[in-house]
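Quick review question:
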């Protein structure tokens, strides 16, 4: 689950990770009020959306006076901000962060990520932070250092210094930086983050270190133990069909192809997307109805997939293990009757009680195509959409 920069900065403050003074604003009036409270110019007007690259897209601007705060707030609130992370459709800006402008000596990069390969938390840092970090990663990856922290040991003093030295911080900033990184690590672990990125982390003209930007992603599987964090979820930033699917515990991700999928198990869902691609079609979604899908689950899955008008055909790929094929087939029949399906549906089913399941499907009088195996299913679904 992602949160906004202003929310991340509030959390940082509670962990003594220094950030500029500032406040969220939902209107031009609120923006002016916050600017007045800050007392000094310039202030920075920052669009709050769940995507990076706002600066380059025109969503982060410096205001030198109250008149400029008003003009910029009016301009940015309500704009559709397009960045390299939003896709061409962009994102509607509904809130701003009004923040004290900083005198920047140097923009650095700092992030923490879960690294599954080494089962550690990796700290990434670079002296070349700021808006072109993607280019640094592509052209001069040696300018980004990585330090691996064993989560059982926790972050060690020498690792804090290792990162500080790599950033070539002035000696007076070393201790504050170590404290910042150690606090950030504490924040990361305590809140089950999957990613925290500060780009830029700045060194100010008077050699203070400060998080100027803040991107935080929480591990959604751990949110059940962070009720307070769940309140930070912003449904405006999420796909409406994905929100609907999450109400029924369906693992659903909207993609841009035209073949809808209903599959049980994440591994099989991945394999299904691959065979669809191989057959020359493209998946419209990833949908895992889970190991023990009920007919209600199947019905909801159908409803959500059919609500997506780019879907031209649906492939159902089920392996009956915990879920028995006859139960599933009944679910499909019930769902089909209720949802009025007017596009081709291909079913591939294998596993426990498969014969019973097939009988239920063929006796239902529905317009379903059955497939004998994965390859056959892929060919049939591709033929249906192409
Ligand atoms: P994004 O990464 O989405 O482009 P940032 O928050 O990193 O947004 O802002 C983009 C750039 O704007 C920063 O690299 C920095 O140069 C400048 N900036 C952002 N906040 C401030 C601030 N409070 N004071 C001065 N400059 C800022
Ligand atoms: Mg940034």
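Suggested answer, residue by residue:
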């Amino acid at each position: 689950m992602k949160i906004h920069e202003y929310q991340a900065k509030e959390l940082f403050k509670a962990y003594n990770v220094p950030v500029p003074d500032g406040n969220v604003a939902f209107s031009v009036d609120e923006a002016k009020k916050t600017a007045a409270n800050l007392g000094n110019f310039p202030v920075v007007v920052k669009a709050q959306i769940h995507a990076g690259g706002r600066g380059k897209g025109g969503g982060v601007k410096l205001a030198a006076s109250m008149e400029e705060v008003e003009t910029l707030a009016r301009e940015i609130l309500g704009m559709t901000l397009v960045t390299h992370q939003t896709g061409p459709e962009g994102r509607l800006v509904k809130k701003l962060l009004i923040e004290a402008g900083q005198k920047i000596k140097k923009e650095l990069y700092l992030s923490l990520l879960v690294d599954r390969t080494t089962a550690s938390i990796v700290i990434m840092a670079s002296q070349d932070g700021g808006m072109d970090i993607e280019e640094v990663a592509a052209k001069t990856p040696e300018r980004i250092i990585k330090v691996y922290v064993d989560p059982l040991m926790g972050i060690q003093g020498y690792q804090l210094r290792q990162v500080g030295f790599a950033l070539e911080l002035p000696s007076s900033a070393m201790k504050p930086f170590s404290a910042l990184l150690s606090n950030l690590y504490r924040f990361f672990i305590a809140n089950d983050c999957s990613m925290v990125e500060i780009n830029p982390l700045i060194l100010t003209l008077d050699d203070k270190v400060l998080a100027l930007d803040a991107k935080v992603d929480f591990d959604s599987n751990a949110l059940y133990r962070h009720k307070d964090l769940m309140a930070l979820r912003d449904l405006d930033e999420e796909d409406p069909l994905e929100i609907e699917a999450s109400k029924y515990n369906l693992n659903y991700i909207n993609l841009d192809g035209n073949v809808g999928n209903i599959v049980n198990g994440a591994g099989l869902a991945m394999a299904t997307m691959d065979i669809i691609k191989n057959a020359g079609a493209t998946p419209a979604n990833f949908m895992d109805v889970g190991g023990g899908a009920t007919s209600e689950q199947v019905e909801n899955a159908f409803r959500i997939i059919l609500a997506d008008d780019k879907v031209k055909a649906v492939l159902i790929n089920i392996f009956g293990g915990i879920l028995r094929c006859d139960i599933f087939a009944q679910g499909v029949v019930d769902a089909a009757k209720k949802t009025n399906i007017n596009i081709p549906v291909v079913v591939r089913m294998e596993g426990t009680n498969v014969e019973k399941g097939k009988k239920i499907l063929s006796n239902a009088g529905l317009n379903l195509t059955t497939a004998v195996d994965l390859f056959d299913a892929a060919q049939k679904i591709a033929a249906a959409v192409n």
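Why it works: Residues 191 and 225 are 9 Å apart (CA to CA). The longest helix spans residues 171-190.
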